[in-house]
Design a protein that fits this description.
Helix content is 12%, strand content 40%. By secondary structure, it is mostly beta strands. The protein has a twelve-stranded antiparallel sheet with strand order 5-4-3-2-1-12-11-10-9-8-7-6, with helices on one face.
């Protein structure tokens, strides 16, 4: 008879052993793709974006917050503020030169790993991976797929048809799907060409869903950093 503890360990290991990345048609990494360029789905330049964010947790409860983001595709930096509809700041953080700085975090945003998770989600939504893709191919419906190897050992797939129809899948180092990001095509795009609504889904036992509705998009003036020395 299998001991209970050994059986539980076996059951825990099964999903890990069975996880694998979806297959895409193999194409040499240096081959020139003929589909929509993945960079075209991300904001180019420097922007201040205001979103109304409807957050739904695993228990079904929902809460609406405001998210103010300042992003730069030039420096790959971001500054984000999460606040209540009344304007109370719950979370504020910056990411620049690979360094995360948290200025304010009110419960539950002060939980370990919460700040890193928020900024990672922000970077996934607004920045193309900073490494070249390692594989590209086409799905049966003609959608172009780009696969990227991430620094943390994970993998990111970007599937594009055009600037309105695309999806991002993020996998951890064990090839388990952890995030999905896609626009809501029926909500259209803003005058600046950005999706009016984006849906982010965090998968897993404590998964959540963020529905981000664009309220305002303002271009910012880019100021290159001065080199030291």
């Amino acid at each position: 008879m299998i001991h209970l503890s050994r059986l539980m360990l076996l059951l825990m290991c099964l999903p890990i052993a069975c996880s694998h990345l979806p297959d895409i048609p193999s194409t040499p990494p240096d081959a020139a793709p003929t589909g929509s360029c993945p960079a075209s789905i991300f904001p180019q330049g420097d922007w201040q974006l205001l979103h109304a964010i409807e957050a739904a947790g695993p228990g079904g409860g929902k809460q609406t917050l405001l998210g103010l983001s300042q992003i730069s595709s030039h420096t790959r930096s971001a500054h984000c503020v999460m606040m209540t509809l009344e304007g109370m700041v719950l979370f504020q953080a910056s990411f620049d030169d690979g360094t995360l700085s948290v200025q304010r975090a009110v419960a539950p945003f002060d939980r370990p790993g919460m700040a890193e998770g928020i900024v990672d989600d922000l970077r996934m939504i607004f920045f193309i991976p900073d490494r070249p893709y390692i594989q590209t191919g086409r799905l049966p419906d003609g959608t172009r797929v780009y696969r990227y190897q991430l620094l943390d050992g994970g993998t990111q797939d970007i599937e594009t048809q055009d600037q309105t129809h695309w999806v991002i899948h993020r996998y951890d180092r064990r090839h388990r799907l952890v995030r999905t990001v896609r626009p809501e095509p029926d909500q259209g795009r803003s005058e600046q060409g950005m999706p009016n609504q984006i849906l982010l889904e965090a998968h897993g036992l404590v998964g959540y869903q963020l529905r981000m509705s664009l309220v305002e998009a303002q271009p910012l003036t880019y100021q290159p950093k001065l080199k030291k020395g």
